[in-house]
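Bug #77: duplicate submission created two jobs. Keeping one. Sequence:
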Amino acid sequence: MGTSQVSQGVSGTSTVGRPDEKLEVMTIPVSDPERARDFYRRLGWREDKTPPGRFQFTPPGSSCSVQFGADLVPTAPGSAQRMFLTTPDIVAAQDAVQAAGVSVSDIFHLAADGIHPGPDPDRGSYRSLFSFEDPDGNGWQMQEVTSRLPGRVEPGPTQYASRNDLASALRRAAAAHGEHEMRTGGFDDNWPDWYAEFMVDEQTGQEPPP
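Kept job's structure:
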């Protein structure tokens, strides 16, 4: 036998490794499902097909959806708080939510000495946020994430959830590569490989190329 881990499943059959366990749907409490439906439609989230009596919406580029309906959960409407969305561009995301007619907070950022107004001056990943609520008061936090902390992304193929995410990653790579060329003092003929290494390292939380 090789070195692979083999375990017994609940049915007694052997399984190799652990299967994926992906967060698929969060259910939030609302008082008026039709009103909530109109709100998430205005945000531009994709409305998914569901059984009768419930609605489901998926934010752009997300693999997790939000679901609601009449009496689907026992908690009070508006009690779902600090649900996090991520974006590669906090300013553009705030503009998009405001354009949908939704009231949003000012952008703020997290620093070692507390919370400060405006985006993080260095646009550091995880630091810049704004918040908004649905009609029942369920609270959402939009957080700017451009690179992941080590261990937050499983090794594997690098992929982007949308064209916007890919374009944002290319812009960040271009800016970083410009600084790289300034340090080296000349044009880098090998820029495609440098871009590729930067984008993979950024997404998996590794140190970018020098």
